[in-house]
Amino acid sequence: MNLSWCSLLLLVVFAAELALAAVVDDAVQFDPKDIKMTIKSRNGEIIDCVDIYKQPSLNNPLLKDLKHQIMRDIASAVAGQQDGNTRATTVEQEWHKGTRQCPMGSIPILRTNPSVNYLTGSLFPSPLRAANISTWSGAANAAGPRYEFAVAIAANGPYSGAYVQLPVWKPARVHGSEYTATYLLLAGTKDTEFDPTPGVLPPDVTNQIAAGLFAYPEKDTNPRLNIFYTADGGKTLCYNLNCGGFVQTSRAIALGASIVNGASGVDDPVPYLLVSIEKSAAGPWHVLVNDTDLGYYPRAIFPWWMFPESVANLMGGTVLNTWPGGKHTDTVVGNGRRPPRDSKPAIVKGYVAVDLDGHPFPDTLEVIVHTAPNCYDVKFFDQSNGSVGASVAFGGSGGPDCAPRPA
Ligand SMILES: *[C@@H]1O[C@H](CO)[C@@H](O)[C@H](O)[C@H]1NC(C)=O
Ligand SMILES: *[C@@H]1O[C@H](CO)[C@@H](O)[C@H](O)[C@H]1NC(C)=O
Ligand SMILES: *[C@@H]1O[C@H](CO)[C@@H](O)[C@H](O)[C@H]1NC(C)=O
Questions:
Q1: Cα angle 100-209-16, degrees, rounded to a multiple of 5
Q2: What start and end residues bound the annotated signal peptide (predicted)?
């Protein structure tokens, strides 16, 4: 290696994927006779508790040969669940009022209304695409519907996992048909020759898994817990249980459903959600929130090289701006305050990576992607205050300042 990592870092950066990605929007498939119970929450969400052995992943053709293994995994998860009055999870969702979780042997599935489902009806980012600096800054001049990113990336892998605490904000403004997201995303490459080097991003990020909080006007604007994966670099994005890629084992958390206690005032105490995406050596990728294991993505849903390791971990905020009437909307990212200009911005904190031997280590964030820094920005925080792991401040309030700059 005769180039320093610094100069390599300048050669390759990730850019926002401005070609808007397709979302596979077939609703979650299950037979109504497999519903064991239906719960209506106060905000109008409907949760079906569906037989855990009839979940969408068990019909996925890519997982046909793994079906017995998945059934065994589900059986051992069910055996490990304790019924009774024990606290089901530390994550409060709207539907928990009254009913803490689905009955044993079932999983909660949010009923979505296709006509108002912004996640399936709109397009989602593939925020990572290897490009060079000239490509990236050129793209930032485009007008029209687009994603704006205020994210930081670590590339000191390979990694077998990462965890971070996401701030739970109930956003002050989310324009109709838009969303604002705070998330952790792990990306792998299909380039088997790629030799991870500190700070260098891979040539492609074909395989990705993300988990985080997405807010959009649907029943309420509380943040909603969503996960997604792509196995084709973001051309196809599968949310939650769509596409049958995720094997859900938790009966306490409903993917896509609203979380209760988001902060709204800038001086409110901010609850944090610990999000982890991690795998054992030969095992699948698990997604955990506040230490509740939601389930896993079998490696076979990633036909390109099975996603054995992550080479880039991304975190921060993203907003979909639909550009109505030729104007940038004022949908907020984070808590609407933009670092470094504003005090008290939203902070993603305690980012820790896991190496291939399963050992956590305090990793460093090096690369920033801010596609509209005059309205949504991101800034590294020192690993200060005695807490372990890196932190990054992010966010902004959108608005006319986001107008495209002349090319
Ligand atoms: C996650 O757990 C922490 C610590 O128990 C708690 O303070 C926080 O509110 C939880 N997050 C959510 C979103 O419920
Ligand atoms: C980087 O920019 C140069 C010149 O604009 C272009 O020829 C090249 O294809 C770009 N590389 C990538 C990876 O986009
Ligand atoms: C660290 O503590 C200082 C002073 O209490 C505070 O202003 C700052 O926001 C804290 N940083 C983080 C990352 O929590």
A1: 125
A2: 1-21
